[in-house]
User: Which sequence fits this backbone?
């Protein structure tokens, strides 16, 4: 279990956009998404959707499956930190 998960938007920012010296505006234009939508992902306020993952793949930023898995792992780690109550075994 990941104790302190890193949002995949931060990985996208630090490992893809920063080395290419791309601004959010330029990256959004190249990916065909709005600047606001990409900014929300990069700032951890939105997740990487399947559609964005495919756009990243087509733009040469890794495999779509990798981005989707990073997002799912992050979401699961955050969900495990929350207190989920009132769950009982399905089989009595």
Assistant:
């Amino acid at each position: 279990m990941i104790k302190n998960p890193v949002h995949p938007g931060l990985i996208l920012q630090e490992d893809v956009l920063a080395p290419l010296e791309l601004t959010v505006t330029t990256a959004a234009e190249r990916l065909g998404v709005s600047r606001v939508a990409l900014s929300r992902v990069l700032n951890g306020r939105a997740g990487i959707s399947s559609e964005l993952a495919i756009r990243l793949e087509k733009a040469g930023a890794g495999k779509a499956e990798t981005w989707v898995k990073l997002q799912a792992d992050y979401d699961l780690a955050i969900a495990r930190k929350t207190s989920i109550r009132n769950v009982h075994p399905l089989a009595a």
